[in-house]
Design a protein that fits this description.
By secondary structure, the protein is mainly α. It has a domain at 15-26 and 38-60. The protein is 39% helix and 0% strand. It has three helices and no strands. It has helices at 7-13, 22-30, 47-58. The longest helix has 12 residues, at 47-58. The chain is globular, with a radius of gyration of 15 Å. The protein starts with 6 loop residues before the first helix and ends in a 13-residue tail after the last helix.
């Protein structure tokens, strides 16, 4: 199936990048537009790399600050 989907089409629906470039590409596409993401990471990715990646992704600016506690 992967051979049937051109890269341009894939990149319409997903952010594709090496791990070190992923936070920047996510920020370019979603900063200020989305407050949540879903990552599909391989299980064999070392825990240290996952922690570093998540730390960098959490640093991306977002407009959502939480729900109002009062009405």
């Amino acid at each position: 199936m992967a051979a049937e989907v051109p890269d341009e089409v894939l990149e319409t629906f997903a952010v594709v990048a090496p791990y070190d470039a992923l936070p920047e590409k996510l920020a370019q596409r979603y900063a200020g537009h989305s407050d949540s993401l879903t990552l599909d990471l391989p299980e064999e990715l070392p825990d240290g790399e996952v922690r570093e990646l998540l730390q960098d992704i959490r640093a991306i600016g977002r407009t959502f600050q939480g729900y109002a506690a009062t009405w």
